[in-house]
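Predict the structure of Gamma-glutamylcyclotransferase.
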Amino acid sequence: MKPQDIIAGKSSLWIFGYGSLVWKPDFKYKRSEVGYIENYKRRFWHGDNFHRGNDESPGRVVTLIEDDDATTWGVAFEVSGSQLEESLKYLNVRETVRGGYITKMVDFFPHGEDRSPVQALVYIATADNPLFLGPASPEEIGAQIAVCRGKTGHNLEYLLQLAEFMRSSCPHVEDHHLFAIETAALTVVSYLLAAQ
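Done. Here is the predicted structure for Gamma-glutamylcyclotransferase.
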């Protein structure tokens, strides 16, 4: 789905973020809402050789994996007017060109009683992407995250910021995958610091 196809005939658009977009959108938006999408689970299965790693040591960032029984919490941003084209140009470079993500439209459910879902654009890295790393144990993923760094910063920052978002904005949601990796990565960091 190309950006021009997404915005055809639209004056506004919702964009759903479930990784770094929840704490660092870096584009202008009209408003944001915490909520969730259904039938996807968040997983640290995608490699990053630009923002949070490099070619020799790719970092690990999240993507969405289809799962009929899952929900993924995050933030949707409404963009309108000139924000619409500007945000899609920016995200095309950030997520598609550098990250290898594709786009899909999904139903986003804002948090709260009696809220109607809205259609939202989401970026997903699929298994056919060359940067896709696939599943690994929380210990393996945590160890990789603990030592990787890219042009945007340390991979550990990405993990910790995402975990903090979930604790502060979605305290009622238990993301076992995320928190198990956070524990594993912090264990590796404590060992590295003790060894110095």
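The first strand starts at residue 12 and ends at 17.
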